[in-house]
Amino acid sequence: MPISEPSGDDGQLYTRVDDEQYDELSELNGQPIVHVSVWEEGLADSITPSTANNADSNEAVAADIDLYLRDGVYFELYGTLCYTDLDAAPISTLEEIEQNLQRLVKAGAILEEVAVDDDDGLVLVLAQRHQPQLYLQVGAWLLDEWEELPELTAP
């Protein structure tokens, strides 16, 4: 599914969802997820050294994630908190985030819903058989098209 390019905003990093973006992003609802990558070092780490990846198990870890959808669209997600339950704390390690995402991709998960939080931030709901499995509360994102998936590395 081709996405429209914002005029003059090539590569713009978004932090809030406006009505027009919401309408466009909602067209992605129901898309199968074909590949994910969790970055070992996030964008925030390159700006300010952080101990977030070595945080206590009680602290949330904000991950940077590439999320590829079947019809050729992908998200670069920055500062993403991942929840398995909206009433629970976010996942606390990058390893657990990656394991959850990889398990969902192998199980045929879809982007069930594009939503917004109380501050108009992007929230992606990943589901399996229309049952929400993972909620991604995104700090910032880019949206682009892909023609070829990244090389898969052996575990």
What does this structure look like?
- The protein has 155 residues and is of the alpha+beta class.
- The chain has one domain (19-145).
- Helices cover 17% and strands 34% of the residues.
- The chain is built from three helices and seven strands, in the order αβαββαββββ.
- The chain has helices at 19-26, 43-47, 94-106, and strands at 31-38, 63-69, 73-83, 110-116, 122-128, 131-137, 140-145.
Keywords:
six-stranded antiparallel beta barrel; 7 strands; 155 residues; alpha+beta
What is the typical, i.e. mean, pLDDT? 84
Briefly note the structural class of the backbone: alpha+beta
Q: Please give the radius of gyration in angstroms.
A: 15 Å
Strand order of the largest sheet: 1-2-3-6-5-4
